[in-house]
Amino acid sequence: MVVELIAVGTEILLGNIVNTNAAFLAEKCALLGLSLYYQTAVGDNEERLSETLKTALNRSDIVILSGGLGPTKDDLTKEVAAKVMEMPLVEDKHTRKRIEEYFKNSQSKVVTDNNWKQAFVPKGSKVLDNKNGTAPGIIMEKNGKVAILLPGPPNELIPMFNHDVFPYLNSLQPEIIYSAMVKICGIGESMVETQIADLIAGQSNPTIAPYAKVGEVHLRVTAKAKDEKEAKKMVKPVVKELKERFGKSVYTVDESVTLEDTVIGMLKEKGMSLTTVESCTGGLLAARLTKVPGVSEVFKQGFVTYSNRAKRKLLEVKKSTLKDYGAVSEKTAKEMAKNGAFITGADACLSVTGVAGPDQVEGKPVGLVYIGCCYKNIVTVKEYHFNGERDKIREWAAVSALILLRECLLEQ
Fold it and tell me: How far is CA 378 from the centre of its chain?
């Protein structure tokens, strides 16, 4: 089946917001085994939206529209879709009651008249409750075509899609789709692709799809079969082969598990504690770690020692080290990691110091970063040269610190 995406909103066309919904929906459609050939962004204009939807319905089986379901006059998606598919709007009492309850439990408690337009839905459509907002989702079916209308805010669209739309679309497929995710860290995308070139060249069912992330590569293995049991059976040997090829670089085969989840889990298993000391990342590493539920069991403390004075005062980095080698140096990273562990009594300590840009520091190039890991009183320091803008360098540094810690935990 062929699916098409339409993002509705002038703010998307003007670049005021980033269309993250498209990336989410495209990935989910691929997971479902749907063929996606077109993505379109259209402004809040009735005529252009109508023409865009007509074109999409002519060439695709399913059209997913996001945005334009709100209470204001420029929210036109539902009204236009109803006209195009000739399904008149009627009031849905369940949705009206749900809107009343939503405002009753909100701070404003007052329902303005324009909100009631959200209670009108195309006659004969399936209505999807919005547990995070007022605009319901809508599934319209007519003449073998399907239009799915979803609210624009990601915090409303994503849970609605996962809870209601994903199983609906899956039910339209003649075969069951099952996927497993093999997550790899510490190896570049090109190297990963080289090592599985033969598998990709010979693939049919299951398939392997690589996704490049900062410091990671994710390999989605997907199979189609008559039932989930058969699909899992087909995926299993491919996942096993990937794990054998990449060895310790594979940190999980669970799509919901992140790199920081894995590192925190390893520390818990070993009964070890962790401290972080950061300069150029400014707390980004600690922020990633503290996203993990239960991290307080192992995370002792995080320092942001941006200035040389802070490095001396809080971490007891030697004045002579900073003078002779500079803040961005292997020597400084080593002292930061070692002293951070000693001062806090942690079993492990990660240190990050570098030049995020846009200007050089101490004559050292943008992108130069030193990351240290003190584990069981053994200090490992690695030198990195990252490319990109300031935020990207900082992100690379934080991820690389997690990878280094994982390597130390595996080796010692």
Answer: 34
CATH of 2-172 given 3.30.565.10, 3.30.450.20, 3.40.980.10, 3.30.450.40: 3.40.980.10
Under 8 Å between Cβ of 354 and 368? yes
> Is there a common fold for 2-172 and 259-411?
no
Burial of 287 (0-12, 13-18, 19+ CB in 10 A): middle
What is the average pLDDT score of the chain?
95
Helices then strands, counting H and E runs in the chain, come out as: 16, 17
- The tens digit of pLDDT for each residue in 212-235 reads 999 999 999 999 998 889 999 999
Does the domain made of 259-411 have the CATH classification 3.10.290.10? no
pLDDT level of residue 149 (50, 70, 90 thresholds): very high
Strand segments, DSSP code E, in 231-389 are: 250-252, 274-278, 299-304, 348-354, 368-375, 378-385
Instruction: Identify whether the C-beta of residue 333 lies closer than 8 Å to the C-beta of residue 351.
Output: yes
Residue 109 has pLDDT above 70, yes or no: no
For the chain, first and last CA: distance in Å?
51
Return the domain boundaries, the chain. 2-172, 176-252, 259-411
* pLDDT tens-digit map of 56-95: 999 999 999 999 999 999 999 999 999 999 999 999 999 9
- pLDDT score at 233: 97
63 close to 53: Cβ distance less than 8 angstroms:
yes
Rounding to the nearest 10 degrees, give the CA dihedral for residues 86, 123, 165, 46.
Answer: 40
Q: What is the mean pLDDT of residues 325-353?
A: 98
CATH architecture of 176-252: 2-Layer Sandwich (3.30)
Buried/exposed code over 71-98 (b: 16+ C-beta within 10 A; e: otherwise) = beeebbbbbbbbbbbebebeebeebbeb
What is the model's pLDDT at position 373?
98
pLDDT of residue 318: 98
Query: Is the entire prediction scored with pTM above 0.85?
Result: no
Residue 300: phi and psi, rounded to 5, are -80, -55
